[in-house]
Each structure stands twice: as C-alpha cells, then as structure tokens.
Amino acid sequence: MSYNAFSVSPGRPARPVESPPGAWRTLPIDGRFDLVYEDANGAWSNRSLAARELKLGPGRTLLGGIDARRGGYRGFRVDRIRRLTDGATGERIETGILDRLLARAEAQRRADALRIRRQTHAHRRATRPGAAATQTM
Fold first, then answer.
1. CA 54 from centroid of its chain's CA atoms
2. Residue 42 CA, distance from chain mean position
3. Per-residue pLDDT reduced to its tens digit, 64-82
4. 95 DSSP 8-state letter
C-alpha cells in the first residue's frame, strides 16, 4: 500500500494517515511558480513550474511539478530554491520558502475539503426522499 497524507477510505471522510517512520509524505499543491534554483554543483538557473505536490521526506522536501523548460515532471529541492515568484500574484519570496509552500498546501487542502463538504451536502439534500416532490411544487 502506498502511504499518502490524504488517503481516503470509501464512505469515510478524508483524514491524514500516519506514515511509517522515514517514509515520504505527499501534499498536493497547485500553482505556477518561477524559480531561481541552485543545483548540486552551485549553478543557478531560472525555471517555470506548474506545481503539483510537495514531497516531505527524511532530511529534504521537494517541490514537484511540470517544468516548462524540460517539458516533463521534475522535483526541486526546496532548500535549493533561492527565489520563488508566485505566477498568480507576482509575489517574490526569498526567505521562508518552505513555510510559505506548506501554508499554501494547507490552505488549498482546507478549501478543497470545504468544497467537497458543500457538494456532498447539496447532493444529500437533492437525493433526500421527498426532495423531488418539494422541488416540483
């Protein structure tokens, strides 16, 4: 079984699952970012990324997504990101990048959970016995 921070059992609400020690946790994150990235050799480059996930693992965190420069999925070590620019707001972040990414992932998780709760509530109201009779009157 793969462990994921948002594993869901059918018919049960989403709750984080305890990951085994040393395992990676994956947090969904959505957004477009421009990065100034320093590779393992110390060379800096500019990258454009359509972010998909944050991977939190033992000793490192990766920001994963589609790298426009390479045209495929790529993971960037967050500790090597020197500047992150949010494509939606233009905000430039040079310190506390990991904290900002974690806060964004959490905010998106909460917004998704609220949206799902509202959709479920609306669906239950619509499929409740007698709901069709009251809607046609």
1. 6
2. 28
3. 999 998 889 999 999 999 9
4. S
